[in-house]
Design brief:
It is a single chain. The chain has about 130 residues and is mostly beta strands. The protein is built from no helices and 12 strands.
Length: about 130
């Protein structure tokens, strides 16, 4: 979890690896590592947020993230930002490509996971499965 004073939430990733002392369920290659996951906290009236993290493919095969889900949101999509003239816009993408030996940052202004139709208020310090 990043600085909780900045209104960020911890994320529990269901990717079949240990993160921050938690044993997580799911299926992913042993050579993929997730670091520093968080979801941006939003005011109670806002029904969307975004998840950010670092993904490292330490193996020798390419990998792809093709989907994401959480019970905290009605819909979850993989997104990226693109320049449309002088405006930055978010666009849904079909997957996130992870070439071998590379680390990717899902971060504000770049690749990220969008959470739509939030099912409850997200508070700083909450932990959510993603």
């Amino acid at each position: 979890m990043r600085n909780p004073g900045r209104g960020l939430l911890a994320v529990i990733l269901s990717l079949g690896m240990s993160l921050a002392g938690l044993t997580l369920a799911g299926s992913v290659a042993d050579d993929v590592t997730i670091n520093d996951p968080y979801i941006r906290a939003v005011p109670p009236v806002v029904k969307t947020s975004a998840a950010f993290l670092q993904i490292q493919n330490g193996g020798d095969r390419e990998r792809f993230i093709v989907d994401a889900a959480t019970p905290a949101a009605g819909a979850v999509e993989l997104h990226m930002h693109v320049h449309d003239g002088d405006v930055m816009r978010m666009r849904r993408i079909p997957h996130i490509h992870l070439p071998p030996g590379k680390t990717f940052n899902l971060e504000p202004g770049g690749l990220h996971v969008m959470l739509f139709d939030l099912q409850r208020v997200l508070r700083s310090g909450d932990q959510l499965p993603l």
